[in-house]
Amino acid sequence: MGNILSGETEFFKGIGQIQYEGPQSDNPLAFRWYDENLVVAGKTLKDHFRFACAYWHSFCGTGADPFGGPSHFFPWDKKSDPVERAKDKMDAAFEFITKMNLPYYCFHDVDLVDYGNDVLENERRLQALVDYAKKKQAESGVKLLWGTSNLFSNPRYMNGASTNPDFHVLTHAGAQVKAALDATIALDGENYVFWGGREGYMTLLNTDMKREQEHFARFLHTAKDYARKNGFKGNFFIEPKPCEPTKHQYDYDAATVIGFLRQYDLLDDFKLNLEVNHATLAGHTFQHEMQVAADAGLLGSMDANRGDYQNGWDTDQFPNNVGELTECMLVFLEAGGLKGGGVNFDAKIRRNSTDMEDLFYAHIGGMDTFARALIIADNVLQKSDYKKFRQDRYASFDAGKGKAFEEGKLTLEDLRAFAIENGEPATRSGKQEYLENLLNRYL
C-alpha cells in the first residue's frame, strides 16, 4: 500500500510505514506480535482478524465529553465547505490506514461528510465523498468492511428512528439508510451494520413496545429487500447494546437479538456484530456474548474495545488486556472465526491524548493484543488438556442413557428409574482454579 498520493498534504508527518519487528523490539511505532503473514490455526493473522479502522472515533472524535468541549483539533478540519473539509479528512484517514497497513475501514454516513436537514443535499454530499473514496480505495487497496447510517445523533431521532412513534421521522430514517446502502454497494462494502442507538424507550408510560418492535422488524426487512434488489450480497449485522442513550434498547444483548431475528424471520440475512464494551454494559463478559452468537452460528463481526469497570458508560477504550482477550480468542477459534465480518477498532484515544502519534500507539497496541491473544489461545487448544477436560466433563452424555436423553429417546419416567437404580451421583469438581492456572501458564 502507498501512503501519500501526489499533491496531497501529509497529516501524520514523521511517521512512516508501521512494520512488524517482533517481541524483542522497543520501537513504539512497530508491531511486536502482529505479523500479518503468520499462520495460526490454518490462517494468516491478516485473514483471521480482517482489521478495520473505525472512521468515526479516529477522524471525527474530538475528545469532547459531557463535561467539556473538544480537546483534539485536527489539521484536516479547517475548510468551511463541508465537502472539501470531508475530502481533507478522507486524505488523512487513508494516510493513516495505509501507514498502519490496515486492510479495511468502516463508517457511518455522517462520518464521511457532515449532514444537515435537507435529504437531497445530504445525498449530494455523500455521493461526492463516495466518488472520492472509490479513487482512494483503488489507489491504496484498502477495502470497505461495512457501512452504516447514524440514526441517533440528529434531534429528530430523539424518540428513535425506525421505532419512532411518528411515521414522518421513520421516513427520514429510510431515506438515510437508502443512501448509506447505496454508498456501501458503490464502494463494494462487504457488510452493512444496524446499530439501534435509540431504538428503545425511556419509559413504558408512553411506549407501545410491541408495535415499535414490529416496526423495527418491518424496517429491517424493507432495507434488506432494497439492498438485495440492488445487488448487495453481503451480510447484514445487528449490533447489541443494552442501554445508553436510551434506558432500554430493543437489541439488549446477543440472546435478545437472536430471539428478535428468529421471531421476525430475519435469520437468513442477519448476523451479529458484537462490541466488548456493550457486553460489559449488559452485565456480561465478552466471552459470553461471543459464545451465545457462536452457538447460534451468528458470530459475524466485532467492535474491538473495552470498558472501564469503574464507569457505568460506554468508554470505548482500546483493548489491552491479554488475559481477557485470550479467553475470547478461545471462543473465536473453536467457532471457526467470524462469519463474514472483521475486527474494527470502535475505540477512541483518551481526551488527554492529543499528539498525532497517539492514534498510532492505540491501534498498534490493540492489534498486538489481538495477535498475542490468538497465538496464546491456539497454544492452549493445541498443547494443553483444556479441550479434553471439557469433553470429559460431559462424557456421561456420550454413551448409554445420557446419549439416549440427548437424542430424545427417554421419558421422564425413564429418568426417574435411572436415578433410583443408580443412587446418589458422585461429586465431580469443575476444576475452575486449575483451568485458570492453566490459562495463566500460557500467558
From TrEMBL:
Cofactor: Mg(2+)
Record: residues binding Mg(2+) 1: 239, 275, 303, 346
Gene Ontology CC, one term: cytoplasm
Cofactor note: Binds 2 magnesium ions per subunit.
Class of enzymatic activity (EC top level): isomerase
EC number: 5.3.1.5
Annotated localization: Cytoplasm
Top-level taxon of origin: Bacteria
Protein name, UniProt field: Xylose isomerase
Subunit structure: Homotetramer.
Keyword Cytoplasm: yes
GO terms for MF: magnesium ion binding; xylose isomerase activity
Catalytic activities: alpha-D-xylose = alpha-D-xylulofuranose
Binding site for Mg(2+) 2: 275, 278, 314, 316
Gene Ontology process terms (BP): D-xylose metabolic process
Residues annotated as catalytic: 108, 111
Principal location class: cytoplasm
Family named by the database record: Belongs to the xylose isomerase family.
Keywords of this entry: Carbohydrate metabolism, Cytoplasm, Isomerase, Magnesium, Metal-binding, Xylose metabolism
Keyword rRNA-binding attached: no
